[in-house]
Amino acid sequence: MSTSEFLNTTKKKSDDIAFKIIVPLLSLLFVIFNPLSLFAISVLVAILLYIIIFRTPIFSKLFLFFLAATYIFILFIYSVSPKIQYIEFKTTHPSWVEVEGNSLRVDVNWQGGKTRRSVADITYQYRNHNTIVKKIGNNILKNNTYSVFWNSEKEKKESNQKLKNLVETYIQKKNYKILKNPDSEESKLFIPLNNVLLSSSFGDEFLVTVSKVMLVPFFFMLILFFWKDKGFKK
């Protein structure tokens, strides 16, 4: 076997492993760790749009790419809309009941590392028959700073205070819902119930990440252009 044939065979095996094993496995994990109802909706929407736009059978690789794009778009809409998240959860958990919450208290902390953001833990109470149940919702809301380098202590305090003021406003306006599983002590706090909220969403983080990925090569090209231009002038 020549070197060229060996390289082609190796490349084919690598592609097979990547596209037939790794990609499907990662896609399956991605679907599992998100609400399955969103994937079901994505499949229905993708089939309908695919037939209308392409007018061909759905049994093709093109449909899989189309389905992936549809699923990501629906996930994005879901992630930036607290109200849709609440409606989706209530629809898929019909037995859960709404309870009246009280004594909501917010505790905001700075989360360092790669994320560099403020996160809000919210303590809430509700009455279950004659018993007062106390719960803590961790990382309910967050305020991303997207700092390129680092954050000063002043910036950290300002970010924490901004998030705390925001959450306290939601609490004062009763812009929240608490749902409880009647068969257990399990409960879930939804705050706020806005139609759109970018600051605490996966969609916002996704857009910023994509922007960074696109901007880094652009700045490198810009630096290279000016460096070459300066070199030519010399």
TrEMBL record:
Descriptive protein name: Uncharacterized protein
The membrane spanning regions, by residue number, are 21-52, 58-80, 206-227
Taxonomic source organism: Chryseobacterium jejuense
Q: Which keywords does this Swiss-Prot/TrEMBL entry list?
A: Membrane, Transmembrane, Transmembrane helix
